[in-house]
Amino acid sequence: MRALITIAVTLALTACNGDPQTVDDTGVDTGTETEAPMPTPFPVTWDSSRTSLREQSTATVGGVTFDLAMYENAAYHCAGTGSYRFLVASAAGAGQAPLWVLLGGDSPGHFDSACASDASSPDCVYHPSTGRGALDAPDMNKLKAALMAHLKGDFMGNTFKDNIAAKRAQAGSRLLVMSGCDDDLYSGLGTVDANNPTHGITSDGFLATAAAIDYTVHQAAFPSGQVILHGTGGGAAGAFTVARGLFEHGVRVNGVIADSYLLNDYLLALDQSKCFDENDFDTRYSIAAVGQKVGFFAEREDFFPRGSYAAGFDVPLFDIYSLRDSACCGTAPLVGGAGGNRSNCAYIHSGVKGLVDAGTPGVSQWEADSAEHNLTLSGNQAGLVSALQGWVQSIEASGATPPTW
């Protein structure tokens, strides 16, 4: 893997999208790139053949009973313990239905470099420490809780939330909840995580997610129509990269909702400014180290949103962010390059704004004057729910065909 600054040069990770810049190790724009772009690995191969049913259950929300089926794919090991798992939720008796893929997660993390040489070192910790628990295979209860975080409006489960996932579930969509147990923004293509204390562990988020969707749409029990990827937090970056990677294989999903995160090169400026909320990130957290773990999707500008659409990618995108979100230093002083933007978060998302302003077909953006993260989970933005409903309905009305695998 390239040196840290080389990773940062072309495509550092961010809660958003923007134009590429070339920087030296002081963060100064040099105007020249130091290395040629990493060659594309596509086509890649994902393995769904080792997927098996692990557990079944039910859940009832708002009088609707969902049949739950949890699967495990032994082909892909988590960064911690166990293998990748996913949950499929179908309204009882459902036939063919759109597939709504939920990719959750907080800001991505990484093991300290001390772990590479001595796993017993007191410095061998995970950054941020709150992310360590996400590295183990989830059980049924954890995946069900992730589903209910989108659907359930009260503790007893008697009402649906007023948000887009709950609206689509009520309209008949089948839901797939993916685990993100490599904490790699669902974007890993098998890159070895050099700092993982269990040596040889690879970051497989894209491969495992593609395999889960592929497996689900080919099951007779889950006849699927259109496919929408809905990511929150770190999963928002994954929703886009999964759609982008599948597109390279001729598999065109029908839409992407990216709530708070996307991959691009602007987060480097935030990382260097150390403007992140100290309650969320420790001083040894490094976005470039996350990029090293992710690999390809963190290094190629033409696989970021702005570069993707310039390269012919045409899947509808709905980008969402809050102006004062701490995850993109929303209340901190503007970082270098952000002048003229309402906040650092607006700067981070300015690339997608450029796509919207240019009239790029299918690309929409929602800016909230809020500090809230993951706006599609809460349902607090009534106008957002209505806008998303209209966006989804326009995709349905367009007659767009389901993905062909």
Offer a concise description of the structure:
The protein has 405 residues and is of the alpha/beta class.
Domain module tally = 1
Nearest-integer average pLDDT: 87
Write the element-wise H/E pattern from the N-terminal end onward. Answer: HEEEEEEEHHEEEHEHEEHHHEHHEHH
> What shape does the CA trace take?
globular
**What is the CA-CA span between the terminal residues?**
31 Å
* Strands, count: 15
CATH superfamily: Alpha/Beta hydrolase fold, catalytic domain
Radius of gyration: 20 Å
Strand order of the largest sheet: 2-3-4-8-5-11-12-14-15
Q: Biggest β-sheet: count, sense, barrel?
A: 9 strands, mixed
CATH fold group: Rossmann fold
Q: Helical residue percent?
A: 25-40%
Strand residues, percent? 15-25%
Q: Which CATH C-level class is it?
A: Alpha Beta
How many H/I helical runs?
Answer: 12
